[in-house]
Amino acid sequence: MGYSVGQVARFAGITVRTLHHYDEIGLLRPSERSAAGYRRYSEPDLDRLQQVLFYRELGFSLEEIAVILDEPGSDPVTHLRRQHELLRRRIGRLEAMAAAVKHAMEARKMGIPLTPEERFEVFGDFDPAQFAEEAEERWGGTDAFEQTRRRTARYTRDDWRAITAEAGEVLQAFAAAFAEGAPADGERAMDVAERHRAHITRWFYDCTYEIHKGLGEMYVDDPRFAANYERVAEGLSHYVREAIHANAARHA
Amino acid sequence: MGYSVGQVARFAGITVRTLHHYDEIGLLRPSERSAAGYRRYSEPDLDRLQQVLFYRELGFSLEEIAVILDEPGSDPVTHLRRQHELLRRRIGRLEAMAAAVKHAMEARKMGIPLTPEERFEVFGDFDPAQFAEEAEERWGGTDAFEQTRRRTARYTRDDWRAITAEAGEVLQAFAAAFAEGAPADGERAMDVAERHRAHITRWFYDCTYEIHKGLGEMYVDDPRFAANYERVAEGLSHYVREAIHANAARHA
DNA sequence: CTGCGGCCTCCCGCTACGTGAGGGTCAATC
DNA sequence: GATTGACCCTCACGTAGCGGGAGGCCGCAG
């Protein structure tokens, strides 16, 4: 029993060659082979294929997908939940792009020229380069800046992926605490603030409590950063600033 | 004046190598070079780059993008409009995927097993293979079937792209006529039906009026096909059937 | 026993870049 | 005016994710 390569390919709308490839690289090995060496795919194999295709559609590399699917303690429901979340983010991004296109159309009609930054705002999402440029203007020549430059220069794509993932988690933690009404100067919010500080210290530079407070101010004052928080929840940037200050006071 | 590779790369969130590549293949040549051979990008160059990145994001190959951007009589506004449309489609698809994930979660919770077809429904969008399998069951051994098999075997990806695009246009034409209240047995709807028939004859097999009427029935009776029309507009499948019948009567 | 579709394993090709190597350029600085 | 360091140049080879064909075995229909 089980399904042949051709059948599976037809179900999934992919080619036989693709299945061969996934077998080769070990991403999806059919659980059985016939006496003649034919690949036989079982139901669980189809399950896995579905997951693979989903994550692929969302832009993950095959290697990343293998890691995700093989990490221990990840049941199907977890994957479905995660996929749903990823899809929602992706949709959000595309909607932002659609809005940007509209914006460009308006500007074009009015004859208003766009600045280069405006033009590409939509791409780059979480652009470290842009961040770095900003950072230079603000803190050029400072210790923290030098440290950041030296350290980030050696980071690989995987590192960056891990960093942004971690940053996302912290952001979510802030958002959750905020949404559930935890006070900004309460333990929960302060703990998240501390995680935030640790994150920066770990990946960028020694973030003292003083510097951290400065960052908190910036998250409110600089619309660029504020937007990052405000688009998650209205008022979140202020909440984050309060939490950072409270956390700094706690450790003073 | 103008911008250097590095500056442009930072704006756009891409690498310098990517710009080099686009220069190499002629997709985006900087309009100037400095005396030392440095690339200098002008404002119109940035405009073009923005278009390139948009279409790239939407999954077009670089070659296709070059064709799109260089086709005569395509002004920027046209591109913006098209991009907006493409984005909306893409968003629609992702939303369908999100719905499917929810569906899978429900099924999982209820302990309902999914059939292989159900599992992959979301991918493949307009799956020709699935269509072919269905077709075999229905018309296996018939002339039309043989003809389709022989002809489609030689189609390239570009052909398929053209085919689905054409099919999409016909669908839109039906939808538009329907939405604007044109009667199903009126000239406008019948003309679209005739386009539909021509499309099939051109790409698959000689679609006689008799066969066409059979297809019309199927578009209503078979939920698989009906869904294709109904998700565009409620009642559209019936409308299409009527139009096809009227058109056949007109040519009888 | 002879097709004929489907399956197998190489293996080379393609796209869209990544990633150095080896070497000029340019503005600031010593 | 020489050095330094960021930035630029041109090769040129490497990689991911398959596409597609060659050459050959499998299995059933006629």
From TrEMBL, chains A, B:
One matching Pfam family: TipAS
PROSITE patterns in the record: HTH_MERR_1, HTH_MERR_2
UniProt cross-references to Gene3D superfamilies, sorted A to Z: 1.10.1660.10, Antibiotic binding domain of TipA-like multidrug resistance regulators
SUPFAM superfamilies: Antibiotic binding domain of TipA-like multidrug resistance regulators (SSF89082), Putative DNA-binding domain (SSF46955)
UniProt keyword terms in alphabetical order: Activator, DNA-binding, Transcription, Transcription regulation
Residues covered by the HTH merR-type domain: 1-71
UniProt keyword Transcription present: yes
Cell membrane is among the record's keywords: no
Stated name of the protein: DNA-binding transcriptional regulator, MerR family
GO terms of molecular function: DNA binding; DNA-binding transcription factor activity
Record InterPro entries: DNA-bd_dom_put_sf, MerR-type_HTH_dom, MerR_fam, TipA-like_antibiotic-bd, TipAS_dom
Superkingdom, taxonomy of origin: Bacteria
